[in-house]
Amino acid sequence: MNIKGSRLAIRSILCMLWSGFFCLLIFMFSPQAEAVYGGNMQAEAFPQVITAQKMAGIARQQLELELYKAGENRRHVLTLTNGPRDLRLPVGKLRYEAALPGQIRYGSVQPVHIRLYIDEKLYRRVICYFRVQVFEKVLVAGMDLPLEKNIAESAVRVEEREVTGGQGRYLTSFQDIEGRVPIRYVHMGQPLEQNMLQNPVVIHSGSPVKLIKKFKGIQVSANGIAMQKGRVGGRIKVRNANSSRILQGKVVDATTVEID
Q1: Which of 33, 49, 133, 136 has the fewest C-beta atoms lying within 10 Å of its C-beta?
Q2: Among candidate residues 233, 222, 228, the one with its CA nearest the CA of residue 206
């Protein structure tokens, strides 16, 4: 074969290869090719779809249930911060369970675990995260409250605030603080909590007190001297004025200590 014939043969072969490759590209990107090469295989193998919105709704419902079981009746807001995407599932009966790992985290991000079952076999675990905000009308310092000073009713006000603890931590009425004093300096605008207050000092060191002792329905008394300052309900050391014996007892009021 001469050189000219060889070139024609090579050119013909290249044209045939190019034409075949072009046809292959058309075939691969056609709808028929998707069916042949697996473009619809995922939808066929996993025909069920549970949406992200559905899973978030399941998690939210479980959170609401747990708040109800905890007796939480204050205004609250649940904000989804992170959740799974739409999820495809295989053929079978779908069932799901939702649960909280531990106690609800007020003022923080709370995970909710969801288990997905297909024909009663665990298929997948997913997690939704919610920020849990609970609001309550609580007592707030209307001015700076100094240490160990009685709190006037005009020194506090009621405001709705987000709370970060369970029930009973924040004070809600003036009756909760009446007759009590701050343990530490409380700044204006700060919500009042139970652990911020205590009973005032009613007995001072060196003060004369009445010592009482109850035994089998009989009460005896003696004169004594306080050796420590004391608050109602607190325990202090006292000295019997007659025997000089050192004793311990509970402060009953400003003049009385009940010996153990």
Answers
A1: 49
A2: 228
